[in-house]
Amino acid sequence: MYWKLFRTFFKIGLVTFGGGYAMIPMIKAYVVEKYRWVSQEEFLSLLAIAQSCPGVFAANISIFVGYKKMKTKGAICASLGTCLPSFLIILAIAMFFHQFENNRVVAAMFRGIRPAVVALIATPTFELAVQAHINRYNCWIPIAGALAIWLLGVNPIYIIILAGLGGWLYGKLKAL
Fold first, then answer.
1. Dist. CA 170–CA 157, nearest whole Å
2. Distance (Å, whole) CA 76 – CA 70
3. Nearest C-alpha neighbor of 85 from the set 38, 34, 19
4. Average pLDDT in the chain
5. 18: pLDDT confidence band, cut at 50, 70 and 90?
6. Per-residue three-class SS string for the chain
7. What is the spatial distance between Cα 17 and Cα 111, in angstroms, rounded to a whole number?
8. Residue 79 pLDDT exceeds 70
9. Lowest-confidence pick of 21-35, 53-67, 72-86, 110-124
């Protein structure tokens, strides 16, 4: 099982373009759909927790999943699997960067990758919105949060705290 955790998250870690959010579809495909290590509901909670915790998003998820399956050693195997590909890729780039830093072909390839990364991030965002029951009545909440961060420069931690307080208040009012 340790090897399976490492190998699975190593494959996921190879998809480093776009960061952790671009990895969400692949993480979900493996841990929820293929291996059923966590349920759909647990995965949604994991995403919220991983976003709230400091550190690399995909590494946080791998630690939670690895710990759930095989405790501390599982968390170590899964997190190493997630982080090792990025480390190796960055090491290779650092070793050879000076050889292709001005290469027009390489620069064009990276310009072509950017729109694909946007799609990789947008797809799980819409799936998460459906799973989180975002609808026409409450869609203003994530939109207002995103705009506050983007246009006003509000620290995302304040948005998370406000959203948590708002959810708590909503639960209290709904219980009345």
1. 20
2. 10
3. 19
4. 88
5. low
6. CHHHHHHHHHHHHCCCCCCHHHHHHHHHHHHHHHCCCCCHHHHHHHHHHHHHCCCCHHHHHHHHHHHHHHHHHHHHHHHHHHHHHHHHHHHHHHHHHHHHCCCHHHHHHHHHHHHHHHHHHHHHHHHHHHHCCCCCCCCHHHHHHHHHHHHHCCCHHHHHHHHHHHHHHHHHHHHC
7. 12
8. yes
9. 110-124
Nearest to 32 by CA among 70, 84, 68, 75: 68
| 42 token code pair | 């647990």
**CA 102 vs CA 93, 96, 99, 115: distances in Å:** 13, 12, 8, 21
Residue 24 CB neighbours (<10 A) = 25
Per the rule left: phi > 0, alpha: psi between -120 and 50, beta: everything else, 157 is: alpha
Provide the phi-psi class of 56: left if phi over 0, else alpha when psi is between -120 and 50, else beta.
Answer: beta
